[in-house]
Known about the structure:
With 196 residues, this protein is mainly alpha-helical. The protein has four helices and no strands. The chain has helices at residues 2-20, 23-46, 53-92, 107-195. The longest helix has 89 residues, at 107-195.
Amino acid sequence: xxxxxxxxxxxxxxxxxxxxxxxxxxxxxxxxxxxxxxxxxxxxxxxxxxxxxxxxxxxxxxxxxxxxxxxxxxxxxxxxxxxxxxxxxxxxxxxxxxxxxxxxxxxxxxxxxxxxxxxxxxxxxxxxxxxxxxxxxxxxxxxxxxxxxxxxxxxxxxxxxxxxxxxxxxxxxxxxxxxxxxxxxxxxxxxxxxxx
Length: 196
């Protein structure tokens, strides 16, 4: 009989753990339910000879109450942690505006405030990084524009210098031609004078 009861309890706790609650709420519920069962079994052991049908009925209702009370307490105490975990997961996924507002007046509320400060710090850091990135992009674009203007100005100067050099080359070619023609004139005059 005892092994059967233990087997049913194990099955009940396994189902309770797997389907209705998380690890933290299960730990709380398990502690409460175990303590409740211990109390019921202790009363039964103390009055074992005088047990009657009314004791079993009251014990049955007490066991049901202990089970429901344990499950409810486990959920109530685990709910703030579950909310905190959900918000932490949101922040991890990139939602840096996610905040937790718990009013439990205990360490859990302090933990939620610390979480909010961390999330605010991350949001501010991310915002600062974006601002720096935009600023550096603007600086690079400005440098690119300035570089393009400098390059354009240099190209214009090179073009103008090239035109000036071409002009000088044409003028020097004309002067060379003039010198050659003058040389020819001088040679023709000199050869005429020698013939005479």
